[in-house]
Specification:
It is built from four helices and seven strands. It is α/β, with parallel strands linked by helices and 144 residues long. The protein has a single domain (2-19, 27-142), classed as 3-Layer(aba) Sandwich (Rossmann fold). The chain is globular.
Length: 144
């Protein structure tokens, strides 16, 4: 899928969420893969908006993790994690990672998951975002 604007990214996020079903006993984890500036945070902002989050959603680069309460039936909390500055999985564990992923009511979006890949569940959704030659964004989505 190609996105030429944040509005089109929002459509892609909506399509992604439509088919997303919570796991039975664990958090639903979504890894956002892509270079700087490909739109990982924009995608997460779109997800937050669609899920009814009214507060401003920014990149958690400096705070590493932000959480948002959800009013939906499927998920109670959205976690947005940016692992760009993390050196390894151990740093993620200090944020309460195990408790987060053990709760089936949690929806977790993690940018730069490759930096903490050993801590991620083997079965996690993957969204790969790349730049196109025309300056747009290409999304490849792998659901588990």
């Amino acid at each position: 899928m190609i996105s030429r604007s944040s509005k089109e990214t929002e459509k892609i996020a909506k399509e992604f969420l439509i088919g997303l079903t919570p796991l039975k006993n664990k958090a639903t984890v979504v890894g956002l893969y892509g270079e700087l500036g490909t739109g990982k945070t924009t995608f997460t902002k779109s997800v937050a908006k669609i899920l009814g989050i009214k507060s401003k959603v920014n990149s958690p680069t400096y705070v590493i993790m932000k959480s948002y309460k959800l009013k939906g039936k499927s998920y109670k909390n959205l976690f947005h994690i940016d692992a760009y500055r993390l050196k390894n999985e151990k740093e993620l564990l200090h944020l309460g990672w195990n408790e987060i992923i053990e709760n089936k009511e949690h929806l977790v979006f993690i940018e730069w998951p490759e930096n903490v890949i050993k801590a991620l569940p083997k079965k996690h959704h993957q969204i790969h975002i790349t730049h196109t030659k025309e300056g747009h964004r290409k999304f490849r989505i792998k659901k588990v």
